[in-house]
Amino acid sequence: MLELNQISKSYKLADNQVFPALRDINISFKKGELVSIIGESGSGKSTLMNLIGGLDSDFTGKLLIEGRNIGEFSSKELDAYRKNKVGFVFQSFNLIPHLSVLDNVTIAMTLSNIGKSARVARAEEILTEVGLKDHMKKKPNQLSGGQKQRVAIARALINDPDIIIADEPTGSLDSETTEQILELITNIARKGKLVIMVTHSEKVANHSSRVVKIADGRIVDDIKGMDIGSA
Ligand code: ADP
Ligand code: ADP
């Protein structure tokens, strides 16, 4: 479903210098995979996620989503890809503080042909699925870290994207909450989405279906992990 073919990415520095952040990356991902991307700080993990998420299309090689090269998307197509095909989850949740849980989710809906009440119904359904049925009227500062991350996950799922990209999704959670969020994320992959996350957590990596290690912009390890099953 997602295929990276000879992907390289260099950042331009001063004095016409370039820094190669990704070098000849060849890898493909399937629906239903829960992938952990690991590697030292500065190895290229964020750069890779930015490419996959359509946040940066300045690279060489082919980044194929369902056979089409993201590198050749018009800015309009890239916009649509980011909004509808990918859901983002961050370490720091990135919720809007003055909006309720429900509004944090509905505001992310991009399907323009849906009326207000249908939007709210859809958001309520997703929030119930992630275990926040009784917290929809609260503001983010009235939630625990794990609950905030559940809101962010609901927001990421609201447009039914094929790919979920998560940057250290458990990075600011304690170990018990990490397990709960990991279980939720695992279920999302089981239901057929491709989940790719950057993590420094051994626990998270150990419970992924695949672990990809990056060093100096190259893939140095790509190992099969746990059998997470499918729903
Ligand atoms: P990024 O990989 O997104 O550039 P960093 O590598 O700077 O981010 O690290 C993000 C967070 O993870 C920071 O809080 C940092 O202290 C922590 N961290 C970095 N490397 C490790 C590691 N090897 N093990 C555990 N935590 C780490
Ligand atoms: P990671 O997420 O694994 O910490 P990054 O993808 O953020 O790694 O960075 C990979 C390398 O690219 C690092 O050496 C970093 O300093 C460099 N880099 C990242 N962003 C830029 C940028 N905008 N300009 C120049 N160099 C960058």
From TrEMBL:
Residues in ABC transporter domain copies: 2-231
Portion of the parent chain present: 1 to 231 of 663
Subcellular location: Cell inner membrane
Stated name of the protein: ABC-type lipoprotein export system, ATPase component
Family: Belongs to the ABC transporter superfamily. Macrolide exporter (TC 3.A.1.122) family.
